[in-house]
Amino acid sequence: QEREQPHPVLEAFMNHPESLEFSRVEVRERVIPAYMGLISQLDDHIGRLMAFLEERGQLDNTLIVFTSDHGDYLGDHWLGEKEMFHEPSSRIPMIVVDPSPQADATRGTVSDRLVEAIDLVPTFIDYGGGDSRAHDHVLEGYSLQPLLRGEEISRWRTHAFSEADFAWRPARLTLSLAPDQARAFMVTDGRWKYVHYEHHRPQLFDLKSDPDELHDLAGERRHDETLQSLQDALGDWARKRNSRITVSNQRVCEQTGMAHKRGYLFGVW
């Protein structure tokens, strides 16, 4: 389906030079082993870093996070590079080593909670002894510290989001889009994945029954309710992005309704 009846945006990317190259078997047979070799080399260097920290006596007080900014298609879905939202590109590793004794209970375990890269800064603040919640007017992520230490979690995200701007890519010209129209957004609840394209139809995938994301279900009426739910989640996320970043939420609460006491006289004659 994705090759015979491709989505217009994906078709434009399929015709990029890197996508055409990685669609060739002989290219994949040479590049993928080299890519795997680079991963092995990176593993070796991580080992060197761990050994260095241990030699310096810093291993037991260093929080270590292994992650990436994105994956790479390497020919999957007839694509090269990284721009779109299929799992090879958008689902990335997140391995955290918290040396604190409080994390012993969860050491070596795997969490299936939805995590985003924006969770790292709050995590680092809390690990360093700060309080990430005091910066919730700026930080949109969730501290991972409660997850790492097996603490009770009263609030966590139900969806994960990603966005792409392909204004600089040839696909924009193929699609006759203005620079500010070359945008796409993705939301997933862990099972369903919804992709919104500006000026093009959406996509919907069931990651449980179709983990390879080969069957776009957005046009099937039986999935209208699921599609609408994810559309609503995306809209809710877009409306709640932090825009007031100079004053903390706590300060707002403290000063709400206090204008008169602070010397600001509104409607006083």
The helix-and-strand class reads alpha+beta
Number of helices: 9
First-last Cα distance: 71 Å
Find the CATH topology. Alkaline Phosphatase, subunit A
Helix amount: 25-40%
Supply the CATH superfamily name.
Alkaline Phosphatase, subunit A
What features would you describe in this structure?
With 269 residues, the protein is an alpha+beta fold. The chain has one domain: Alkaline Phosphatase, subunit A. It contains 9 helices and 6 strands. It has helices at residues 8-14, 17-22, 25-55, 87-90, 120-127, 145-148, 170-174, 224-239, 249-255; strands spanning 64-67, 94-97, 160-165, 183-188, 192-197, 200-206. The strands form 2 sheets. The chain has a 4-stranded antiparallel sheet with strand order 3-4-5-6, covered by helices on one side. Strands 1-2 form a two-stranded antiparallel sheet. The radius of gyration is 23 Å and the shape is globular. The relative contact order is 0.11. The mean pLDDT is 92.
Task: Compile the SSE list and pairings.
Layout: H1 8-14, H2 17-22, H3 25-55, E1 64-67, H4 87-90, E2 94-97, H5 120-127, H6 145-148, E3 160-165, H7 170-174, E4 183-188, E5 192-197, E6 200-206, H8 224-239, H9 249-255
Antiparallel strand pairs: 1-2, 3-4, 4-5, 5-6
Short description:
This protein has helices at 8-14, 17-22, 25-55, 87-90, 120-127, 145-148, 170-174, 224-239, 249-255, and strands at 64-67, 94-97, 160-165, 183-188, 192-197, 200-206. The chain has 269 residues and is α+β, with helices and mostly antiparallel strands. It has one domain (8-255): Alkaline Phosphatase, subunit A (3-Layer(aba) Sandwich).
